């Protein structure tokens, strides 16, 4: 869904005084299914905000990169002067979660993309764009997701990527369980950065987002309790 349906007044503005137990999590609001992530983050106890400008990025504890069209988002990152600030924040340890197009953007290498497309190198992985095929090849399945209690996760794949190479420091969280793509990697984590090839924001199952919010909450609490020197 296009982010234009989201009213800026419908979500909180960045607030440096927000309690770390309710982390301020930005959703990159340039293109894609922004509304769905905003709703799920709020239900998981976070304080979601829209991020379109560098100042808004600077005010958040973490960032979600939504599904959408990865090359369009890549271009908009440059137009809105967010590309380098986002790379810097990821390099400095900001937690991030990318779904579908967000996974592509977080990769260190992308196959089958435009030559001028940008990526963020938030995770040491090679991702193949549109790996499962075109829109007509979209599908749903249940997958085992490492570290999540409660049984399999319903995964919705829409023109989805997959991970062709995961670096030595990357934890594989989920693989396709069967079919022609059996064994393909579709969820990973490296440190504070998580990525899924599927769309957990559209299924009504909030466990992936809750895991990410808990990760961010732990980072925010740690930062808040570090004594000043």
Q: How would you name the CATH homologous superfamily?
A: Class I glutamine amidotransferase (GATase) domain
Tell me the helix content: 25-40%
Rg (C-alpha, Å): 16 Å
The total beta strand count reads 12
* CATH fold-type name: Rossmann fold
- How many helices? The count is 6
Shape: globular
Q: What proportion strand?
A: 25-35%
Poorly predicted segments = 1-10, 223-229
Q: Provide the residue-averaged pLDDT.
A: 88
CATH class: Alpha Beta
The overall number of domains is 1
Give the N-to-C terminal Cα separation: 46 Å
CATH architecture: 3-Layer(aba) Sandwich
Organism: Nocardia jinanensis
Binding site for L-glutamine: 68-70, 129, 158-159
Function: Catalyzes the hydrolysis of glutamine to glutamate and ammonia as part of the biosynthesis of pyridoxal 5'-phosphate. The resulting ammonia molecule is channeled to the active site of PdxS.
Keywords: Glutamine amidotransferase, Hydrolase, Lyase, Pyridoxal phosphate
What's the structural blueprint in terms of helices and strands?
Elements lengths: L23 E5 L5 H10 L3 E5 L2 H5 L3 E4 L4 H10 L3 H9 L4 E4 L1 H6 E5 L11 E6 L10 E5 L9 E5 L4 E5 L4 E5 L9 E6 L2 E4 L10 H19 L4
Parallel strand pairs: 1-2, 1-3, 3-4, 4-12, 5-6
Antiparallel strand pairs: 6-9, 7-8, 10-11, 11-12
Provide key terms for this protein:
seven-stranded mixed β-sheet; Rossmann fold; alpha/beta; 229 residues; disordered C terminus; Class_I_gatase-like; three-stranded mixed β-sheet; disordered N terminus; globular; pyridoxal 5'-phosphate synthase (glutamine hydrolysing) activity
């Amino acid at each position: 869904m296009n982010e234009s349906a989201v009213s800026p007044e419908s979500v909180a503005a960045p607030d440096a005084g927000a309690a770390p137990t309710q982390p301020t999590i930005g959703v990159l609001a340039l293109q894609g299914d922004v509304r769905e992530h905003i709703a799920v983050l709020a239900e998981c106890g976070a304080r979601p905000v829209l991020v379109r400008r560098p100042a808004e990025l600077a005010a958040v504890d973490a960032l979600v990169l939504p599904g959408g069209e990865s090359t369009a988002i890549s271009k908009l990152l440059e137009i809105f002067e967010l590309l380098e600030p986002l790379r810097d924040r990821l390099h400095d340890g900001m937690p991030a979660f990318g779904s579908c197009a967000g996974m592509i953007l977080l990769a260190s290498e992308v196959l089958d993309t435009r030559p001028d497309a940008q990526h963020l190198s938030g995770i040491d992985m090679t991702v193949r764009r549109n790996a499962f095929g075109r829109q007509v090849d979209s599908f749903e399945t249940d997958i085992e997701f490492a570290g999540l209690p409660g049984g399999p996760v319903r995964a919705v794949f829409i023109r989805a990527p997959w991970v062709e190479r995961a670096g030595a420091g990357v934890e594989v969280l989920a693989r396709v369980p069967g079919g022609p793509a059996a064994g393909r990697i579709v969820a990973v984590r490296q440190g504070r950065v998580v990525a899924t090839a599927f769309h957990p924001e559209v299924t009504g199952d909030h466990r992936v987002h809750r895991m990410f919010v808990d990760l961010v909450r732990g980072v925010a609490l740690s930062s808040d309790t570090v004594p000043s020197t």
